[in-house]
Amino acid sequence: MRAGQIELVTSRALFVAAAALKRHHHQPPSIPKQPHRTAPHRRHGLPAGAMNRQSTTFARSPHRARRPSIASRLSIAASTVELGTAADADAAAASAPGERQIDDEIAEIKRYEDAAREQARRKARRKRAAGVYERGRPGWRYRLWASYDAAQGWIVVTFIGAAIGLNAAFLNIVTEWLSDIKMGYCTTAFYLNENFCCWGEDNGFGPLNYLLYIIFATVFAFTAATLVKSYAPYAAGSGISEIKCIIAGFVMKGFLGFWTLLIKSVCLPLAIASGLSVGKEGPSVHYAVCTGNVISRLFAKYRSNASKTREILSACAAAGVAVAFGSPIGGVLFSLEEMSNHFPLKTMWRSYFCALVATAVLAAMNPFRTGQLVMFQVKYDRDWHFFEIFFYIIIGVFGGLYGAFVMKWNLRAQAFRKKYLSKYAVLEATLLAAGTAIIAYPNVFLRIDMTESMEILFLECEGAEDYQGLCEPDRRFWNVVSLILATALRVVLVIISYGCKVPAGIFVPSMAIGASFGRTVGIIVQALHEANPQSVFFSACKPDEPCITPGTYAFLGAGAALSGIMHITVSVVVIMFELTGALTYILPTMIVVGVTKAVSDLFGKGGIADRMIWFNGFPFLDNKEEHNFGVPVSHVMRTSIVSLPVNGMTLEEIEHLLADDKYQGFPIVEDANSKTLVGYIGRTELRYAIDRLRREQPISGTAKCVFAPPPALSAVTPITPTVSVNTDSMSSTTLDFSRYVDGSPVTAHPRLPLETVLELFRKIGPRVILVEYHGKLTGLVTVKDCLRYQFKVEAAESPKDDHRILEGQEQLWGVLRRAGNWVSGRVSSASGGRIRLSSQFDESSAGRNRGGGAILDGDEDRFTGHVAQVYDVLIHGLLSRHALLLAAQQRLRLGEARGRHGAGVDVDIPVAVVRLVDVLMMETCVVEVPLASAAVKSVHI
Question: Which region ranges are annotated with the description Disordered (predicted)?
Fold first, then answer.
């Protein structure tokens, strides 16, 4: 009995839509009779166990039947359109806005409902488009429409792929130019980067070059962080974690919008050029998916069907990786392995075609003018030897250890950032860029862009440019020291940089770390071979030919680090193969990635994207996880439920329930006493129905609401809620919302294992699973309930010393505050009290300063406020030639300005700006310059 029950609860929900659609394909069109309830049943309820077996798992009585599911009702509506009984064009068109709004609001998309909705759309559109038949056969207009509808998906994918390729080419060009401008500019044509300019003699390490390098890095990071904070906060970070949740069916408003796409595309080159240890490959997936979402919304077929839109988003993710690495096949495998939990064959073909188009457009644009799709694309002609497998294993072990170490400490850095630095996003990114520039410039492998660094580390020494003596035997020791130092510093910088509020990926930084470590191993192996050429260990080497290629070790190290941080295997092997085109190095790559995978699994499952999903608390069920809880669903379900009776509630009472945001849906029961389950209605559907009804005509709050069709109602319910007047009793208005009630929600027995419930959520993706016993509602369970229990079990099995971690965070924050106070005191003392920096870095101090009239930017970020005020002064001062010529040698001082409270305000100015004004100004004067800010009326210079 138990096995049959479990089989029934899984098969009913999975095949309800398929059965309905199959019936209409193989039977003549007809209007099926919809089962309904009798009036006595609605008035007095039913005894326990009186639910129909087809509509619920454990009810046995055949005396009453629950209404068909949403999929079945949509199929019924489609068949009535064919017969002309429900061919109201206005009503048919009215359903689309409701569906779009529902798809944008609900927490998860039901794939089987969307499949039935798509089938109904095709049938209705076919009848409307083929209004004129030629001798009983579809006319040319219908055939034309059918061809367009069939090709619409490929048209959308083509447009999206072309747009992604163009955007990637533009970003590559801008990123390379901005990265080179820190090192200097082309005097003959400033718009040329280093590769296309006839550069003169390099003056090497100079104080002025060092200073300009730091200034450019700081300005780039400040600009990127300010734009992200002001216009599109979702543009920060990588975006892969959120996209995985979106493709799985969850909705995040604005995350894939146009503004996010625009700001991500503008700020990504700035973030990369700032020198922060972040990459563009993760953000490439984000802007590619944003592009797909924006373009697909132009087509009604994808606006009204969220599941089909998510197929397009999976294809866009593949195209994003394809243009980032120049690897179309690797992009498809990455989307399959990492991004999508539902990847049918049709989605794979769409992903393949989208990646192909995007890569072809990028190759046609040729952004690097070298024929390469990415800067670090290389070719290897030499073969490898079996004795090198030992060193390959060392590289693989490093990749696994690197991934585990970075994920552990990056999550701690993220927790510290979320707790203490969330109010200072712009200041944090700016200081990180300045600190990174100060540390990186002395080291040649940290100074240049990471992609350029990998290009150099991947190269073979023979026939290639000897960059900074990398291939000179006399400089091997210093090269090894420099590479080890670069590896260690880059690891620390990645830990503290990944997660700051700029577009930031972790692919390329990890590959750069692995490349520097791998090159170190290669140089050491090469030195060992040259020192002991006659050793048995190197007997496979030919005497007159180079035996060891250090560039291949760097290449394998990059793959190991990427696999270690992301916990992906097959796609890494294919990506690295497409980067080199060398079939001979597939086996070494597989060995390295396999060792990395084995080491990584010792420290936990899931890569950095999965850890970030867990850290942010996203309701995501990973298909790769296996659980064995050993408890029934009754241990997890919610027992305190707000349900709606079939009738008896007024519209005012319903709206009072909807005013509380904690209810995402309501089970429908016969009455409050019997709790006999009838169906389920979502909060969004009910809210949309009421709003639409009020727009059409005024409705009193005392109107009665019915959530089941009366006996005399036609089998086919209208698309909009029915409004009827009952003149037999008290002439009250009755609102029928039966169109929006799911008559056969997914249900489970209280003793059903929690593992089976998780499988139901993974396979069919319902928003909620109702728990019933003999037809009576006993509780409900959501994805969040399951995850909350999972986290509780994991925390009990692996307890952590959170108190010690919190103490460490408090101590670190105390050190930062003391450092800030010291800097503030030094600046105030050096300026004679005319300039003061904020000496308090906590939120309460920021609130007190604002209340006292301090000029801030409105978001507790004092640094942004300072720069905004200085910007006002400089711009308005430069507009007046008289003010510019007269203001000299007088330090810039914003004082005695009238704030909003009418009191004098001393505006804090960074010392660097004061020094800059000292250099620019020529004479001494006192000039009153009007400001655009309403908080400051004038500035005395």
Answer: 21-70
